[in-house]
Amino acid sequence: MCSNKADCLNTMGSYRCHCKDGFSGDGFYCSDSDECADNVNLCESGNCLNVPGGYRCECDMGFIPTPDGKACEDIDECTFADICVNGRCQNIPGLFRCQCSIGYELDRSGGNCTDINECADPTTCISGLCVNTPGSYICNCPQDFELNPTRVGCVGETPLWARSLTHTLSVWVLVMGDD
């Protein structure tokens, strides 16, 4: 009588026992074959687990088992909602990378891009009022000032009171120096 892990094949006047896939032996006695030990290349990007009559893959993070459980395939994280907000998602095997839009930087999680507060830099909007906006900033210049050509600060004519003060100081230095 054949093992319960074997198929019975009817032959002319007799029968033959043949072990099922994943088992080895003479058909009357069949033991589990360890496919994982026999082929170390199984389950790339995961671990091979021997099970009676076969094997299955436990996949590394960023991979999922194929429908038959015999291999691991990459998860395309870029298809998920809210990945790389304010940037572009690039799928790479086992993970993804965010490339942030101008005016944004990668957050600590590495999964999203957050606004850079350009106004935190004291060299931004010199002599003006800096207002942070999503991905940029606005430089508001005081009255009688305008944005300089490089657009990083405000320039204007010297106010009348400042010119008077400068003239008074110059005259005072000249007078003091004549002693």
Automatic annotation (TrEMBL):
One of its GO terms (cellular component) is extracellular region. Gene3D superfamilies: Laminin. One of its GO terms (molecular function) is calcium ion binding. It is found in: Secreted. This is EGF-like domain-containing protein. The keyword Secreted applies. It holds the Pfam family cEGF. Its main location: secreted. Residues 1-31, 32-73, 74-110, 115-155 form the EGF-like domain. One of its GO terms (biological process) is epithelial cell differentiation. The keyword Signal applies. InterPro entries: cEGF, EGF, EGF-like_Ca-bd_dom, EGF-like_CS, EGF-type_Asp/Asn_hydroxyl_site, EGF_Ca-bd_CS, Growth_fac_rcpt_cys_sf, NELL2-like_EGF. CDD domains: EGF_CA (cd00054). Keywords: Calcium, Disulfide bond, EGF-like domain, Glycoprotein, Repeat, Secreted, Signal.
